Amino acid sequence: MPRYALKVEYHGAPFAGWQRQADQPSVQGAIETALAKLEPGPQDGAHTIAAAGRTDAGVHALAQVAHCDLARDWEAFRLMEALNYHLKPLPVAIVDAAEVGEDWHARFSARERRYLFRLLVRRAPATHDKGLVWQVKNPLDLQAMRDGAAHLVGRHDFTTFRSTMCQADSPVKTLDEITIEEIARETGVEFRFRLRARSFLHNQVRSIVGTLERVGAGSWPAERVKEALRAADRAACGPVCPPEGLYLAGVGYPEDPFEG
Amino acid sequence: MPRYALKVEYHGAPFAGWQRQADQPSVQGAIETALAKLEPGPQDGAHTIAAAGRTDAGVHALAQVAHCDLARDWEAFRLMEALNYHLKPLPVAIVDAAEVGEDWHARFSARERRYLFRLLVRRAPATHDKGLVWQVKNPLDLQAMRDGAAHLVGRHDFTTFRSTMCQADSPVKTLDEITIEEIARETGVEFRFRLRARSFLHNQVRSIVGTLERVGAGSWPAERVKEALRAADRAACGPVCPPEGLYLAGVGYPEDPFEG
Protein backbone atom coordinates (compact mmCIF):
# COMPACT_ATOMS: atom_id res chain seq x y z
CA MET A 1 0.00 0.00 0.00
CA PRO A 2 1.94 3.07 -1.16
CA ARG A 3 2.15 6.08 1.16
CA TYR A 4 2.09 9.67 -0.06
CA ALA A 5 3.19 12.89 1.61
CA LEU A 6 0.98 15.89 0.83
CA LYS A 7 1.96 19.53 1.27
CA VAL A 8 -1.20 21.50 2.04
CA GLU A 9 -2.07 25.20 1.94
CA TYR A 10 -5.35 26.39 3.45
CA HIS A 11 -7.36 29.35 4.62
CA GLY A 12 -8.46 28.59 8.17
CA ALA A 13 -11.59 30.73 8.34
CA PRO A 14 -14.22 28.19 7.22
CA PHE A 15 -12.84 25.37 9.34
CA ALA A 16 -13.09 24.32 12.98
CA GLY A 17 -9.37 23.49 12.67
CA TRP A 18 -7.27 20.76 11.08
CA GLN A 19 -8.67 17.83 13.04
CA ARG A 20 -11.71 15.90 11.85
CA GLN A 21 -14.82 16.45 13.98
CA ALA A 22 -18.17 14.74 13.83
CA ASP A 23 -20.33 17.76 13.06
CA GLN A 24 -18.05 20.61 11.99
CA PRO A 25 -16.02 21.27 8.85
CA SER A 26 -12.31 20.51 9.18
CA VAL A 27 -9.35 20.54 6.83
CA GLN A 28 -8.59 16.90 7.58
CA GLY A 29 -12.20 15.96 6.83
CA ALA A 30 -12.12 17.88 3.54
CA ILE A 31 -9.02 16.05 2.33
CA GLU A 32 -10.28 12.66 3.51
CA THR A 33 -13.52 13.25 1.62
CA ALA A 34 -11.56 14.15 -1.52
CA LEU A 35 -9.45 10.98 -1.13
CA ALA A 36 -12.61 8.88 -0.91
CA LYS A 37 -13.59 10.24 -4.35
CA LEU A 38 -10.39 8.73 -5.76
CA GLU A 39 -10.69 5.30 -4.19
CA PRO A 40 -12.49 3.78 -1.19
CA GLY A 41 -10.54 3.92 2.07
CA PRO A 42 -9.82 0.96 4.35
CA GLN A 43 -12.38 1.74 7.10
CA ASP A 44 -15.88 1.37 5.62
CA GLY A 45 -14.62 3.26 2.58
CA ALA A 46 -13.20 6.13 4.64
CA HIS A 47 -9.61 7.37 4.75
CA THR A 48 -7.66 8.59 7.77
CA ILE A 49 -4.74 10.93 7.27
CA ALA A 50 -2.13 12.20 9.73
CA ALA A 51 -0.60 15.69 9.79
CA ALA A 52 2.49 17.35 11.24
CA GLY A 53 0.54 20.05 13.09
CA ARG A 54 -3.05 20.03 14.29
CA THR A 55 -3.87 23.70 13.70
CA ASP A 56 -6.70 25.32 15.67
CA ALA A 57 -9.90 26.86 14.29
CA GLY A 58 -9.15 29.86 12.09
CA VAL A 59 -5.42 29.13 11.77
CA HIS A 60 -4.01 29.03 8.23
CA ALA A 61 -1.30 26.95 6.59
CA LEU A 62 1.20 27.72 3.87
CA ALA A 63 2.80 24.29 4.03
CA GLN A 64 1.14 21.81 6.37
CA VAL A 65 2.32 18.26 5.71
CA ALA A 66 0.08 15.19 5.87
CA HIS A 67 0.30 11.62 4.66
CA CYS A 68 -2.17 9.11 3.28
CA ASP A 69 -2.08 5.44 2.29
CA LEU A 70 -3.66 4.44 -1.00
CA ALA A 71 -4.32 1.06 -2.60
CA ARG A 72 -3.50 2.18 -6.14
CA ASP A 73 -0.13 3.40 -7.35
CA TRP A 74 -0.53 7.09 -8.11
CA GLU A 75 1.83 9.30 -10.01
CA ALA A 76 2.37 12.05 -7.40
CA PHE A 77 1.56 14.92 -9.75
CA ARG A 78 -1.67 13.30 -10.86
CA LEU A 79 -2.65 12.61 -7.25
CA MET A 80 -2.19 16.32 -6.44
CA GLU A 81 -4.24 17.39 -9.45
CA ALA A 82 -7.03 14.91 -8.71
CA LEU A 83 -7.29 15.96 -5.06
CA ASN A 84 -7.37 19.65 -5.98
CA TYR A 85 -10.17 18.90 -8.43
CA HIS A 86 -12.25 17.27 -5.70
CA LEU A 87 -11.39 19.89 -3.03
CA LYS A 88 -12.93 22.71 -5.08
CA PRO A 89 -14.35 25.16 -4.10
CA LEU A 90 -12.95 24.85 -0.57
CA PRO A 91 -9.89 27.03 0.20
CA VAL A 92 -7.65 23.97 0.60
CA ALA A 93 -4.96 23.23 -1.97
CA ILE A 94 -2.52 20.35 -2.27
CA VAL A 95 0.58 22.24 -3.38
CA ASP A 96 2.93 19.24 -3.59
CA ALA A 97 2.78 15.45 -3.32
CA ALA A 98 5.44 12.74 -3.17
CA GLU A 99 5.58 8.99 -2.58
CA VAL A 100 7.34 8.15 0.70
CA GLY A 101 8.39 4.94 2.48
CA GLU A 102 5.79 3.00 4.46
CA ASP A 103 7.47 3.90 7.77
CA TRP A 104 7.53 7.63 7.00
CA HIS A 105 5.06 9.58 9.16
CA ALA A 106 4.01 13.22 8.64
CA ARG A 107 3.87 13.81 12.39
CA PHE A 108 6.41 11.45 13.95
CA SER A 109 9.12 11.89 11.30
CA ALA A 110 8.98 15.71 11.60
CA ARG A 111 12.01 17.38 13.20
CA GLU A 112 10.95 21.03 12.99
CA ARG A 113 7.82 23.20 12.72
CA ARG A 114 7.88 26.79 11.48
CA TYR A 115 5.11 29.27 12.18
CA LEU A 116 4.47 32.73 10.75
CA PHE A 117 2.32 35.31 12.53
CA ARG A 118 1.14 38.43 10.67
CA LEU A 119 0.22 41.47 12.76
CA LEU A 120 -1.14 44.57 10.99
CA VAL A 121 -0.96 47.95 12.73
CA ARG A 122 -3.28 50.66 11.44
CA ARG A 123 -6.48 52.51 12.28
CA ALA A 124 -8.61 51.72 9.21
CA PRO A 125 -10.00 48.18 9.00
CA ALA A 126 -8.21 45.68 6.72
CA THR A 127 -9.98 44.96 3.43
CA HIS A 128 -7.81 42.64 1.28
CA ASP A 129 -6.23 40.97 4.32
CA LYS A 130 -9.32 40.65 6.46
CA GLY A 131 -9.15 37.32 8.30
CA LEU A 132 -5.51 36.87 7.25
CA VAL A 133 -3.89 39.19 9.81
CA TRP A 134 -4.41 40.16 13.42
CA GLN A 135 -5.05 43.90 13.41
CA VAL A 136 -4.28 46.31 16.25
CA LYS A 137 -4.51 50.10 16.20
CA ASN A 138 -1.70 51.16 18.53
CA PRO A 139 1.85 51.61 17.17
CA LEU A 140 4.38 48.96 18.22
CA ASP A 141 8.08 49.24 19.00
CA LEU A 142 10.03 46.67 16.99
CA GLN A 143 13.16 46.74 19.13
CA ALA A 144 11.21 46.29 22.35
CA MET A 145 9.45 43.24 20.88
CA ARG A 146 12.79 41.81 19.74
CA ASP A 147 14.22 42.36 23.23
CA GLY A 148 11.23 40.60 24.76
CA ALA A 149 11.44 37.73 22.28
CA ALA A 150 15.13 37.15 23.01
CA HIS A 151 14.21 35.93 26.53
CA LEU A 152 12.19 33.07 25.04
CA VAL A 153 14.76 31.53 22.73
CA GLY A 154 16.33 28.32 24.02
CA ARG A 155 15.19 25.41 26.19
CA HIS A 156 12.65 26.48 28.81
CA ASP A 157 9.64 25.41 30.80
CA PHE A 158 6.92 27.14 28.73
CA THR A 159 4.05 26.55 31.19
CA THR A 160 3.28 30.30 31.09
CA PHE A 161 2.88 30.18 27.32
CA ARG A 162 0.72 27.10 26.86
CA SER A 163 -2.99 26.55 27.01
CA THR A 164 -4.31 24.90 30.17
CA MET A 165 -5.87 22.41 27.70
CA CYS A 166 -2.47 21.45 26.32
CA GLN A 167 -2.00 17.67 26.25
CA ALA A 168 1.77 17.56 25.81
CA ASP A 169 3.58 15.39 28.40
CA SER A 170 6.04 18.11 29.32
CA PRO A 171 5.99 21.92 29.20
CA VAL A 172 9.73 21.95 28.46
CA LYS A 173 10.46 22.83 24.83
CA THR A 174 13.34 24.31 22.89
CA LEU A 175 12.42 27.39 20.86
CA ASP A 176 15.15 27.61 18.22
CA GLU A 177 14.36 31.01 16.79
CA ILE A 178 12.03 34.00 16.87
CA THR A 179 12.54 36.72 14.27
CA ILE A 180 10.40 39.82 13.89
CA GLU A 181 10.39 41.85 10.69
CA GLU A 182 8.67 45.22 10.15
CA ILE A 183 7.23 45.87 6.69
CA ALA A 184 5.90 49.26 5.57
CA ARG A 185 2.63 48.89 3.68
CA GLU A 186 0.70 51.36 1.52
CA THR A 187 -1.32 52.03 4.66
CA GLY A 188 0.01 50.90 8.02
CA VAL A 189 2.81 48.65 9.11
CA GLU A 190 2.95 44.86 9.23
CA PHE A 191 5.01 42.86 11.71
CA ARG A 192 5.93 39.31 10.73
CA PHE A 193 6.90 36.98 13.54
CA ARG A 194 8.64 33.74 12.54
CA LEU A 195 9.08 30.99 15.13
CA ARG A 196 10.94 27.73 14.71
CA ALA A 197 11.08 24.72 17.05
CA ARG A 198 11.06 20.94 16.95
CA SER A 199 7.52 21.13 18.30
CA PHE A 200 5.21 23.63 19.95
CA LEU A 201 2.80 23.50 22.86
CA HIS A 202 -0.91 24.20 22.41
CA ASN A 203 -1.44 27.97 21.89
CA GLN A 204 2.28 28.61 22.40
CA VAL A 205 2.71 30.90 19.36
CA ARG A 206 -0.46 32.89 20.05
CA SER A 207 0.51 33.23 23.73
CA ILE A 208 3.97 34.49 22.78
CA VAL A 209 2.79 36.94 20.09
CA GLY A 210 0.01 38.27 22.31
CA THR A 211 2.55 38.89 25.07
CA LEU A 212 5.10 40.51 22.74
CA GLU A 213 2.38 42.83 21.40
CA ARG A 214 1.97 44.15 24.96
CA VAL A 215 5.73 44.77 25.03
CA GLY A 216 5.62 46.56 21.66
CA ALA A 217 2.74 48.74 22.85
CA GLY A 218 4.76 49.80 25.89
CA SER A 219 2.41 48.19 28.43
CA TRP A 220 5.01 45.60 29.40
CA PRO A 221 8.74 46.20 29.82
CA ALA A 222 10.71 43.62 27.81
CA GLU A 223 12.14 42.24 31.08
CA ARG A 224 8.66 41.18 32.17
CA VAL A 225 8.71 38.47 29.46
CA LYS A 226 11.64 36.88 31.27
CA GLU A 227 9.83 37.08 34.59
CA ALA A 228 6.66 35.64 33.08
CA LEU A 229 8.63 32.72 31.62
CA ARG A 230 10.38 32.07 34.97
CA ALA A 231 7.06 32.12 36.83
CA ALA A 232 5.98 28.96 34.93
CA ASP A 233 2.42 30.05 35.63
CA ARG A 234 -0.28 30.40 32.96
CA ALA A 235 -1.65 33.45 34.82
CA ALA A 236 1.60 35.32 34.10
CA CYS A 237 1.02 35.20 30.33
CA GLY A 238 -0.11 38.24 28.33
CA PRO A 239 -3.38 38.06 26.36
CA VAL A 240 -3.52 35.18 23.86
CA CYS A 241 -3.91 36.73 20.42
CA PRO A 242 -6.58 35.63 17.92
CA PRO A 243 -5.91 32.83 15.41
CA GLU A 244 -6.40 34.71 12.12
CA GLY A 245 -2.80 35.98 11.89
CA LEU A 246 -1.26 32.53 12.42
CA TYR A 247 0.12 30.30 9.64
CA LEU A 248 1.80 26.90 9.83
CA ALA A 249 4.56 27.93 7.45
CA GLY A 250 6.60 24.78 7.09
CA VAL A 251 7.64 21.41 8.48
CA GLY A 252 11.17 20.03 8.45
CA TYR A 253 12.13 16.36 8.01
CA PRO A 254 15.53 14.63 8.07
CA GLU A 255 15.12 14.44 4.29
CA ASP A 256 12.66 16.69 2.44
CA PRO A 257 10.13 14.25 0.92
CA PHE A 258 9.21 16.81 -1.76
CA GLU A 259 12.78 17.35 -2.94
CA GLY A 260 13.65 16.06 -6.39
CA MET B 1 -18.63 74.27 2.37
CA PRO B 2 -15.36 72.53 3.21
CA ARG B 3 -14.03 69.91 0.79
CA TYR B 4 -12.24 66.73 1.91
CA ALA B 5 -9.96 64.39 0.01
CA LEU B 6 -10.35 60.71 0.96
CA LYS B 7 -7.84 57.95 0.29
CA VAL B 8 -9.76 54.71 -0.16
CA GLU B 9 -8.75 51.04 -0.06
CA TYR B 10 -11.23 48.40 -1.21
CA HIS B 11 -11.71 44.80 -2.22
CA GLY B 12 -13.44 44.86 -5.59
CA ALA B 13 -15.19 41.47 -5.46
CA PRO B 14 -18.56 42.49 -3.95
CA PHE B 15 -18.96 45.58 -6.14
CA ALA B 16 -20.08 46.27 -9.71
CA GLY B 17 -17.21 48.78 -9.80
CA TRP B 18 -16.47 52.20 -8.40
CA GLN B 19 -19.32 54.07 -10.08
CA ARG B 20 -22.75 54.36 -8.48
CA GLN B 21 -25.45 52.34 -10.24
CA ALA B 22 -29.17 52.25 -9.65
CA ASP B 23 -29.52 48.61 -8.71
CA GLN B 24 -26.06 47.21 -8.00
CA PRO B 25 -23.60 47.68 -5.16
CA SER B 26 -20.77 50.11 -5.90
CA VAL B 27 -17.89 51.55 -3.90
CA GLN B 28 -19.05 55.10 -4.64
CA GLY B 29 -22.55 54.24 -3.45
CA ALA B 30 -21.18 52.67 -0.25
CA ILE B 31 -19.18 55.79 0.65
CA GLU B 32 -22.04 58.15 -0.27
CA THR B 33 -24.38 56.15 1.98
CA ALA B 34 -21.87 56.38 4.83
CA LEU B 35 -21.55 60.15 4.29
CA ALA B 36 -25.35 60.52 4.52
CA LYS B 37 -25.16 58.93 8.00
CA LEU B 38 -22.90 61.82 9.07
CA GLU B 39 -24.98 64.66 7.64
CA PRO B 40 -27.62 65.05 4.92
CA GLY B 41 -26.24 65.76 1.46
CA PRO B 42 -27.29 68.62 -0.83
CA GLN B 43 -29.50 66.64 -3.25
CA ASP B 44 -32.54 65.36 -1.35
CA GLY B 45 -30.19 64.40 1.46
CA ALA B 46 -27.83 62.48 -0.85
CA HIS B 47 -24.12 63.08 -1.42
CA THR B 48 -22.20 62.84 -4.69
CA ILE B 49 -18.47 62.17 -4.61
CA ALA B 50 -15.89 62.22 -7.41
CA ALA B 51 -12.90 59.88 -7.75
CA ALA B 52 -9.58 59.83 -9.60
CA GLY B 53 -10.25 56.50 -11.30
CA ARG B 54 -13.51 54.74 -12.04
CA THR B 55 -12.43 51.17 -11.48
CA ASP B 56 -14.36 48.32 -13.14
CA ALA B 57 -16.26 45.51 -11.45
CA GLY B 58 -13.92 43.28 -9.44
CA VAL B 59 -10.98 45.71 -9.55
CA HIS B 60 -9.37 46.56 -6.19
CA ALA B 61 -7.80 49.73 -4.82
CA LEU B 62 -4.92 50.31 -2.45
CA ALA B 63 -5.17 54.09 -2.69
CA GLN B 64 -8.07 55.40 -4.74
CA VAL B 65 -8.64 59.12 -4.12
CA ALA B 66 -12.07 60.75 -3.93
CA HIS B 67 -13.43 64.04 -2.65
CA CYS B 68 -16.62 65.12 -0.90
CA ASP B 69 -18.17 68.43 0.18
CA LEU B 70 -19.61 68.65 3.67
CA ALA B 71 -21.60 71.35 5.44
CA ARG B 72 -19.95 70.87 8.82
CA ASP B 73 -16.29 71.41 9.57
CA TRP B 74 -14.79 68.02 10.28
CA GLU B 75 -11.47 67.24 11.82
CA ALA B 76 -10.00 65.00 9.07
CA PHE B 77 -9.05 62.15 11.42
CA ARG B 78 -12.52 62.08 12.96
CA LEU B 79 -14.13 62.11 9.51
CA MET B 80 -12.06 59.05 8.54
CA GLU B 81 -12.99 57.21 11.74
CA ALA B 82 -16.69 58.05 11.42
CA LEU B 83 -16.84 56.90 7.78
CA ASN B 84 -15.06 53.65 8.60
CA TYR B 85 -17.56 53.04 11.38
CA HIS B 86 -20.48 53.40 8.96
CA LEU B 87 -18.80 51.45 6.14
CA LYS B 88 -18.57 48.30 8.27
CA PRO B 89 -18.76 45.43 7.38
CA LEU B 90 -18.11 46.26 3.71
CA PRO B 91 -14.50 45.77 2.53
CA VAL B 92 -14.05 49.52 1.96
CA ALA B 93 -11.73 51.52 4.22
CA ILE B 94 -10.94 55.22 4.32
CA VAL B 95 -7.21 55.06 4.99
CA ASP B 96 -6.55 58.81 5.00
CA ALA B 97 -8.50 62.08 4.88
CA ALA B 98 -7.50 65.72 4.49
CA GLU B 99 -9.20 69.06 4.00
CA VAL B 100 -8.47 70.54 0.56
CA GLY B 101 -9.28 73.79 -1.25
CA GLU B 102 -12.69 74.23 -2.83
CA ASP B 103 -11.19 74.12 -6.35
CA TRP B 104 -9.28 70.89 -5.70
CA HIS B 105 -10.76 67.95 -7.62
CA ALA B 106 -9.91 64.28 -7.08
CA ARG B 107 -10.18 63.57 -10.81
CA PHE B 108 -9.27 66.80 -12.59
CA SER B 109 -6.40 67.78 -10.28
CA ALA B 110 -4.74 64.34 -10.68
CA ARG B 111 -1.51 64.25 -12.69
CA GLU B 112 -0.67 60.55 -12.45
CA ARG B 113 -2.34 57.17 -11.89
CA ARG B 114 -0.45 54.08 -10.77
CA TYR B 115 -1.76 50.56 -11.21
CA LEU B 116 -0.52 47.26 -9.83
CA PHE B 117 -1.38 43.91 -11.40
CA ARG B 118 -0.71 40.66 -9.50
CA LEU B 119 -0.32 37.47 -11.56
CA LEU B 120 0.18 34.17 -9.74
CA VAL B 121 1.73 31.23 -11.59
CA ARG B 122 1.15 27.78 -10.13
CA ARG B 123 -0.87 24.61 -10.63
CA ALA B 124 -2.74 24.40 -7.32
CA PRO B 125 -5.60 26.86 -6.82
CA ALA B 126 -4.95 29.97 -4.71
CA THR B 127 -6.45 29.85 -1.21
CA HIS B 128 -5.41 32.97 0.73
CA ASP B 129 -5.18 35.13 -2.40
CA LYS B 130 -8.28 33.87 -4.14
CA GLY B 131 -9.94 36.83 -5.91
CA LEU B 132 -6.84 38.98 -5.27
CA VAL B 133 -4.63 37.64 -8.08
CA TRP B 134 -5.05 36.42 -11.64
CA GLN B 135 -3.83 32.84 -11.67
CA VAL B 136 -2.36 30.99 -14.64
CA LYS B 137 -0.77 27.55 -14.68
CA ASN B 138 1.92 27.87 -17.36
CA PRO B 139 5.39 29.22 -16.45
CA LEU B 140 6.21 32.71 -17.72
CA ASP B 141 9.49 34.19 -18.95
CA LEU B 142 10.20 37.44 -17.09
CA GLN B 143 12.72 38.80 -19.59
CA ALA B 144 10.41 38.16 -22.56
CA MET B 145 7.60 40.07 -20.79
CA ARG B 146 9.99 42.94 -20.01
CA ASP B 147 11.07 43.02 -23.65
CA GLY B 148 7.46 43.12 -24.79
CA ALA B 149 6.56 45.82 -22.25
CA ALA B 150 9.42 48.05 -23.40
CA HIS B 151 7.62 48.59 -26.73
CA LEU B 152 4.67 50.17 -24.93
CA VAL B 153 6.46 52.82 -22.90
CA GLY B 154 6.14 56.37 -24.25
CA ARG B 155 3.53 58.31 -26.21
CA HIS B 156 1.51 56.08 -28.54
CA ASP B 157 -1.87 55.54 -30.13
CA PHE B 158 -3.17 52.79 -27.78
CA THR B 159 -6.24 51.87 -29.87
CA THR B 160 -5.12 48.21 -29.79
CA PHE B 161 -5.08 48.23 -25.99
CA ARG B 162 -8.37 49.94 -25.20
CA SER B 163 -11.90 48.66 -24.88
CA THR B 164 -14.19 49.38 -27.80
CA MET B 165 -16.45 50.92 -25.11
CA CYS B 166 -13.77 53.43 -24.10
CA GLN B 167 -15.14 56.96 -23.99
CA ALA B 168 -11.85 58.88 -23.99
CA ASP B 169 -11.61 61.55 -26.70
CA SER B 170 -8.28 60.31 -27.98
CA PRO B 171 -6.50 56.94 -27.97
CA VAL B 172 -3.15 58.70 -27.69
CA LYS B 173 -1.65 58.38 -24.22
CA THR B 174 1.79 58.50 -22.66
CA LEU B 175 2.69 55.42 -20.64
CA ASP B 176 5.48 56.61 -18.36
CA GLU B 177 6.57 53.27 -16.94
CA ILE B 178 5.96 49.53 -16.82
CA THR B 179 8.00 47.46 -14.39
CA ILE B 180 7.64 43.72 -13.85
CA GLU B 181 8.97 42.04 -10.75
CA GLU B 182 9.15 38.28 -10.09
CA ILE B 183 8.60 37.13 -6.50
CA ALA B 184 9.18 33.55 -5.35
CA ARG B 185 6.38 32.37 -3.07
CA GLU B 186 6.12 29.35 -0.77
CA THR B 187 4.30 27.70 -3.67
CA GLY B 188 4.55 29.22 -7.13
CA VAL B 189 5.78 32.51 -8.48
CA GLU B 190 4.09 35.90 -8.49
CA PHE B 191 4.65 38.56 -11.13
CA ARG B 192 3.88 42.16 -10.16
CA PHE B 193 3.29 44.58 -13.01
CA ARG B 194 3.38 48.29 -12.12
CA LEU B 195 2.15 50.83 -14.67
CA ARG B 196 2.29 54.60 -14.37
CA ALA B 197 0.72 57.26 -16.61
CA ARG B 198 -1.10 60.57 -16.39
CA SER B 199 -4.25 58.69 -17.32
CA PHE B 200 -5.27 55.33 -18.77
CA LEU B 201 -7.80 54.23 -21.36
CA HIS B 202 -10.63 51.87 -20.46
CA ASN B 203 -9.25 48.31 -20.02
CA GLN B 204 -5.76 49.48 -20.97
CA VAL B 205 -3.94 47.77 -18.09
CA ARG B 206 -5.84 44.51 -18.47
CA SER B 207 -5.27 44.55 -22.24
CA ILE B 208 -1.54 45.11 -21.74
CA VAL B 209 -1.09 42.48 -19.01
CA GLY B 210 -3.17 39.92 -20.94
CA THR B 211 -0.97 40.50 -23.98
CA LEU B 212 2.29 40.33 -22.01
CA GLU B 213 1.18 37.06 -20.43
CA ARG B 214 1.04 35.59 -23.97
CA VAL B 215 4.59 36.83 -24.51
CA GLY B 216 5.74 35.33 -21.19
CA ALA B 217 4.12 32.00 -22.09
CA GLY B 218 6.03 31.92 -25.40
CA SER B 219 2.91 32.15 -27.58
CA TRP B 220 3.84 35.63 -28.79
CA PRO B 221 7.33 36.85 -29.65
CA ALA B 222 8.06 40.11 -27.82
CA GLU B 223 8.26 41.90 -31.19
CA ARG B 224 4.60 41.16 -31.83
CA VAL B 225 3.67 43.64 -29.06
CA LYS B 226 5.27 46.38 -31.16
CA GLU B 227 3.38 45.24 -34.25
CA ALA B 228 0.11 45.06 -32.33
CA LEU B 229 0.63 48.60 -31.03
CA ARG B 230 1.44 49.91 -34.53
CA ALA B 231 -1.63 48.23 -35.99
CA ALA B 232 -3.85 50.56 -33.90
CA ASP B 233 -6.52 47.88 -34.17
CA ARG B 234 -8.39 46.37 -31.22
CA ALA B 235 -8.38 43.00 -32.99
CA ALA B 236 -4.57 42.92 -32.73
CA CYS B 237 -4.68 42.84 -28.90
CA GLY B 238 -3.99 39.70 -26.90
CA PRO B 239 -6.67 38.38 -24.52
CA VAL B 240 -7.88 40.93 -21.95
CA CYS B 241 -7.08 39.46 -18.54
CA PRO B 242 -9.63 39.25 -15.71
CA PRO B 243 -10.08 42.10 -13.20
CA GLU B 244 -9.22 40.32 -9.95
CA GLY B 245 -5.45 40.92 -10.19
CA LEU B 246 -5.81 44.66 -10.79
CA TYR B 247 -5.33 47.36 -8.12
CA LEU B 248 -5.50 51.14 -8.42
CA ALA B 249 -2.31 51.62 -6.40
CA GLY B 250 -1.97 55.38 -6.20
CA VAL B 251 -2.85 58.79 -7.60
CA GLY B 252 -0.42 61.66 -7.96
CA TYR B 253 -1.26 65.35 -7.53
CA PRO B 254 0.88 68.49 -7.93
CA GLU B 255 0.89 68.56 -4.13
CA ASP B 256 0.02 65.50 -2.06
CA PRO B 257 -3.15 66.47 -0.16
CA PHE B 258 -2.44 63.87 2.52
CA GLU B 259 1.08 65.08 3.26
CA GLY B 260 1.65 66.70 6.64
From TrEMBL, chains A, B:
SUPFAM superfamilies: Pseudouridine synthase. The active site is at 56 (nucleophile). GO terms for molecular function: RNA binding; tRNA pseudouridine(38-40) synthase activity. It holds the Pfam family PseudoU_synth_1. Gene3D superfamilies: Pseudouridine synthase I, catalytic domain, C-terminal subdomain, Pseudouridine synthase I, catalytic domain, N-terminal subdomain. GO terms for biological process: tRNA pseudouridine synthesis. Substrate binds at residue 115. Keywords: Isomerase, tRNA processing. Homodimer. Belongs to the tRNA pseudouridine synthase TruA family. PANTHER family: PSEUDOURIDYLATE SYNTHASE (PTHR11142), TRNA PSEUDOURIDINE SYNTHASE-LIKE 1 (PTHR11142:SF0). Formation of pseudouridine at positions 38, 39 and 40 in the anticodon stem and loop of transfer RNAs. This is tRNA pseudouridine synthase A. It comes from Rhodalgimonas zhirmunskyi. The lineage of its organism: Bacteria, Pseudomonadati, Pseudomonadota, Alphaproteobacteria, Rhodobacterales.
